[in-house]
# Entry
Amino acid sequence: MAVYNKLLLDFRSLYWEYVPLSIIFQSCVGSVAAMMILAAKGPYYILQLGICILLSMLYNAAILAQLKSKWVFDMLLISVGINVLLLVLNLWIAV
# Structure
């Protein structure tokens, strides 16, 4: 929990500097995950693609809605975490 609190404090202190970087990073991870989902055509790939797109859009919407920085940070962690999980899962299926 100490690492999370330190990262959150860092994110809050430099919020306007991290927002553009996090949008680019999260969008790149989401697009690579979507590409691998479509390339692998594994089980339930439409559901996986929907989750990937939904999480990416929710993070961008959280920033545009000017939610509290804690919500934005949590959405970033959730979005990147699940997209990386989907990416690794579909890399494993594709190989």
User: Anything to note?
Assistant: The radius of gyration is 14 Å. The chain has a mean pLDDT of 93. The chain has one domain: 2-94.
